[in-house]
Amino acid sequence: MTTPVTSSEGGHPPLLDLKSVSKSFGGVAALRDVDFSLAKGEIHGLVGENGAGKSTMMKIIAGVHHDFEGQMLLDGREVRFRSPRQSLAAGIGMVHQELSVVPDLTVAENVFLGSQPLTATGAIDWARMDKDARAQIASLGLDIDPRTRMGSLPVGIQQLIELSRVLFSGARIIILDEPTSALSPPEVERLFKALRQLRDEGRSLIFISHFLEDVLAISDRVTIFRNGRKVATANAAATTKDGLISQMIGRGASELSAGESAELTGNASKRVMLAAQGVSQGGILKDLSFDARAGEILGVYGFMGCGQIELARCLFGKLPLDSGTVQLDGKPLPLASTAAARKAGIAYVPENRRMMLFRTEPVYKNVSIAILERIHRLLVKPQAERDIAKTHIADLQIRPPNAEMEVGQLSGGNQQKVALAKWLTHKPKVLILSEPTRGMDVGAKQDVIRIVKALRDQGVAIIVLSTEPETILTLADRVVVMKRGRVVKAFETGHVEKGDLLAAA
Amino acid sequence: MTEAAKPSPKSFDWAQFVRSQLRNIAPLITLIALFVFFSLASKSFLTLDNFVNILAQVSLTSIIAVGLTFVILTGEIDLSVAAVANAIGIVMAFFTLQPDYANIQNVPVPGLVAVVFALAACGALGLITAFGVTRIGIPSFIMTLAMMQIAAGVSAMLVRGQIAYSFPMIIQTLGSGKFMGLRWLIVVAVVTLLIAHLVLTYTRFGRYIYMTGGNRDAAEYSGVNVKFIIGSVMVISAMLSGFSGMLGVAYFGSAQQNQFDTFLLDAIAAVVVGGTSLFGGRGGIGNTIIGLLVLGVLNNGLDHVNIDSFLKILIRGLILLIALIVNVYAQKMRDSSATTE
């Protein structure tokens, strides 16, 4: 199953060596018998789908998880980090995907957060801090006054500055999780130049990314993960993007299982219900255009950070558009507030249930909140609310079937169903679903898929946004692929496979 | 509901019930304990006359506390209530013909017009607060702190250190008159509490208030116009404060600066001691009524037991502290019992 790994660098022992490492969470295996080695002075790419085990392995290396099976050797000595602090002390630095800068502090303060240089008297040495910060970010090709407020800079620049913090911390091993997702091509080039320089100084880097071109461009070797196992480690120079994709997916086209391919049935003659033209927002969405048609499910696929979340928030009036127009059924869609968008006929289920539910309120009040104005006259009618809730509880098979139960006491999948139920009586013209089946068991997934398709058949225009190709391919009649805030490809009809989506994104 | 979904009497989980109802049970027990204590400690406490006294004493506070309950249920705060009450009482007096000895340079208009002017003034102050909080995005704590100062400034400018003594007839009646032997003030307070309870419990607006306080994000993602709700409760709070201020000056028989200073702490204490969550979304008028009675019984009872009047202030502070601890604790217990993920 796993390719035996020997150090490729002429017999030197690897700097970091993991031997048959396994890790499971509550009986579910996240990593199975994985070998991984990192040589001194190499950039090692790491690819795999969501949930393939990349993050779990990095968290073991970074000391977040320590109750794993197997061995981890650093410089030939067995180590087991009990905390991120211990890992850091051993010279391992990690840059997480989520930006963790303090927007209200200056660039220099961010660069030296928690480790400000001091003068002899114990005060912060501002002059030295500014000088060092300037030198440090200049090596990434950035000419920025270190006294600029962080929040006033574009997201890509902020990310580079955050990277510089770890890059120049003196760490021997640097783990980068999706460092390029918010960067523009010239920024990626700057980053790569700095990474190569660090490699040439003898540091070792692990580069995790969904952007396979980036991985191949920067890495010396690439390790591919699938379903918690290591599939292979290959020389980047001898590998192609398609080769990586087929190893990540693990099957030829003939053996794809359900959800890994689909026959699209996009129908251009259907009425356009929602038309977005040239939508831009906050430097994340860039001149984005697409249509959603009545009676069709439009899948919007893209990697994390591609702007899906922002797009959905914009269409529901939660984030203001910087430019562009959105038309609903031929008329401009009012987006001043979520209330305006709801009244116009937009419904939205965000990716995070907590953002959507009133956990200490009973199920029926959660379900009725979006439609109160329809079922009340002067006063609210709790009995009507309960009746509506009971219909949905039966329809969506919410367990336990109790309209009085506090939503916070339901299981995750059932909470998701309540979030969906909220919009079913609203009868929206457009239903926007972010990650509609994430974290659900098989049965719950089937219920949600059935309900969403039934709504589609009633003529609702449905937009499903997901970072999981399976979710998109299971539901969508038509697919658009987003990349760095733009729509880069559209699939209208015909056969489409997971690999096609991965290749386009 | 099916039989299985109901907890059977035998397996009724008392611990769970107390945990989830702590914010309602604790104030009620406090009230009963205080009532029993003062009844035993003082002969003059437990009389019908004294009970009516307590009600009259909390009536003005209760009208302010109602507005504040709306505000706190959304998770916001209004620190300007007492200052607004003071300013509006003075505004009304400013538009009423004063006796010669009052020595105020004012603009007398007919009584009802003066009332309308006063109501318009508190509406305007409320709208300014609402605008600052929802449109500009100033935290309500700071915005209402500014409004407190603005209202105090209005009071100062209009009376310039003087005292006004006469008020429109209708307010004079409601504030200090009697209705079938009962003070009109008590009737007005009870009606206000009743209407507020109905609005909060049985209207869409009331539901939105609870939902906004319970989870603002979720309310917004459900298409509730959260800014409108928060703006509205700010206006309601200012209006009720102003109304209380109008009745208050009639009750006191005079309008002057700094007359309502103790009402801010009393009103906040009543709402919080009653068990309405400072984080929003939990509680209601029922809680506020209990809180008002706790404060009323405490203030009144301490007078009956002949206690050091300086110690009185300290005791009130301690009771408020305990209520705050229970409030935060109740929130934590609910949060943990509602989390199953």
**Radius of gyration of chain A, CA atoms, in whole angstroms:** 25 Å
Structural class of chain A: alpha/beta
Number of strands of chain A: 22
What's the mean pLDDT score of chain A?
83
**For the report, how would you describe the main beta sheet of chain B?**
2 strands, antiparallel
What do we call the CATH topology of the domain at 16-91 and 170-250 in chain A? Rossmann fold
Report the β-strand fraction of chain B as a percent range.
Answer: under 5%
* Spatial extent as radius of gyration of chain B: 21 Å
Low-confidence stretches of chain B: 1-10
pLDDT averaged residue by residue of chain B: 86
Query: Pairing-aware structural class of the strands and helices of chain B?
Result: mainly alpha
Mass-distribution shape of chain B:
globular
Distance between the termini of chain B: 25 Å
Instruction: Specify the CATH architecture of the domain at 16-91 and 170-250 in chain A.
Output: 3-Layer(aba) Sandwich
> Order of strands across the biggest sheet of chain B?
1-2
Total number of helical segments of chain A? 17
Strand order of the largest sheet of chain A: 6-7-8-3-9-10
Explained architecture:
The complex is a heterodimer of chains A (505) and B (341). With 505 residues, chain A is of the alpha/beta class. Among the domains of chain A are: 16-91 and 170-250, P-loop containing nucleotide triphosphate hydrolases (Rossmann fold, 3-Layer(aba) Sandwich), CATH 3.40.50; 352-427, no CATH class. In chain A, 32% of the residues lie in helices and 26% in strands. Chain A contains 17 helices and 22 strands. Chain A has helices spanning 54-61, 84-89, 107-111, 126-138, 155-167, 185-200, 212-218, 241-249, 308-315, 338-344, 363-368, 372-375, 382-396, 412-424, 442-457, 469-475, 498-504, and strands spanning 16-25, 28-38, 43-47, 69-74, 77-78, 92-95, 173-177, 204-208, 221-226, 229-235, 261-265, 272-281, 285-293, 297-301, 323-328, 331-332, 346-349, 430-434, 461-466, 478-483, 486-491, 493-497. In chain A, strand 15 (323-328) and strand 16 (331-332) form a beta hairpin. The longest helix of chain A is centred in the middle third of the chain and has 16 residues, at 185-200. Chain B has 341 residues and is mainly alpha-helical. Chain B has a two-stranded antiparallel sheet. In chain B, helix 2 runs parallel beside helix 7, helix 2 packs antiparallel against helix 10 (226-252) and helix 2 (48-73) packs across helix 11 (261-273).
